[in-house]
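Fold it.
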Amino acid sequence: MGRASTPSLHERGQIKVLSTAGYTVKQIADVIKRSRKAIMNFLYHQEEYGTKKSSGRPSKLNDREKREILRIASNSTISTNEIRRTYDIDASESTVWRMLDKCPNIVRSRMKKCPQLTQRHKNERLCWARIFMRYDWEKVQLLGVFKNKPTNLLFQIQVIFGD
């Protein structure tokens, strides 16, 4: 069973009025539909009632570490785990992620995956570069840009090497 909400300002006013009118704690509890203990707590501690700060669990990161995380992540593609490792931050990956997620100025997202270049790809690129290295690229003329429907390519560029 959960904790009941604290009495509202209206209920607190009713408790004060009924108490000064001479009602007992049980009678006040019956009228307001609150427990006797809640009524007694309010009557004995009226000034400080409802002002206690709920403590909660303390943060694993101090202010300096929070600023450091924001500074690091603001202009880099470094992952949250790498931030933890390189800057020796004693907090979990999800804590660092929550810290970055709270900041409205930093938008983090997963990087798009791209296929890794195999050795065959590297050799083909090098071969292409060797073939076209001797071309006079200043004489290249752009023939046209158009939409290619049969192959579903958005754009196709044809290049003619002039004399």
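The longest strand covers residues 140-148.
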